Amino acid sequence: MQTTKLGNTEIAISRIGLGAMPLSLANRPSEEQAISVIHRALQLGVTLIDTADSYCKDENDKHHNEILIAKALSTYRGNTDDIIVATKGGLMRPSGDWTVNGNPDHLRKTINESYEALGGTHPIPLWQWHAPDDRYPIRQSLKPVKEAVDQKLIRFVGLSNVSVDEIKQAQTMFPIVSIQNQYNPWCRNPERDGVLQYCEDQKLTFLPWSPLGGSRRVKLIGNFKELAKVARERDASPHCLVLAWLMAKSPCIVPIPGATRIQSLEDSLAAEKINLSASEISAIEKDFPG
Prior knowledge:
It is globular, with a radius of gyration of 18 Å. It has helices spanning 31-43, 64-75, 104-117, 138-141, 143-150, 164-171, 189-192, 195-202, 215-218, 225-234, 238-249, 262-269, 278-287, and strands at 3-5, 12-14, 18-19, 48-50, 84-89, 91-92, 99-100, 124-129, 154-160, 178-180, 205-206. The chain has 13 helices and eleven strands. The strands form three sheets. A seven-stranded parallel β-sheet has the order 3-4-5-8-9-10-11, covered by helices on one side. By secondary structure, it is of the alpha/beta class. The protein has a single domain, classed as Alpha-Beta Barrel (TIM Barrel), CATH 3.20.20. The model has no long low-confidence stretch (mean pLDDT 94).
């Protein structure tokens, strides 16, 4: 697996990560199957696993995904020293729906819970603020994050669902290494709102969430004419080509596709071997004008 740097650090991460969220939702696979997917990702060179405290069925199931990843790492027979678990906090699922919570007390509590869920022995490799909360100033919400960094509960900090201005505000408190906003052929906002360019300028890793457009759109990817044509010419799946397209858009982009089956995982990871030409990118974008 090719690697790149995590933000402006010297930490190497895989060019494609694993989005672990599908392994803990309501229709999640068995624990055995979920762990086998994580283990296979590690075998294939994945060193970045994206998770969150709220990747679960509901609030009673909180931290399920983090606990699952910790178990997978502890039972893996290979070396896991270089694995970057990128968790998040700041969203809640009181009844299964997503709710933003930027209350500093909540963030302080959930950071400590994530630390324990991930093993409680080493700093959280990468903690990401899941989303700003309009009820609280950014500096107020992020105060406990600064405390956790100082206490060595968190090693690196990232942000999610943020604007350039919000990134700049957070950077006055501590270094930021990654940004996670939605980006896929259907949602190309980061190209227009300046976030992707800012990440390039600041050498921040950009982790596009929902890189394949979500479960409903994943089923439709094969219906796009130009994408399907390039996929046939490349002897690759349309899903794989979408991930290759994302990586071609910027060197700072590290897709984090989800997978509940080893076959779909391997299909996604095959994208790192595909370098699309300018003409192929233009052809694909005819299907997705943005």
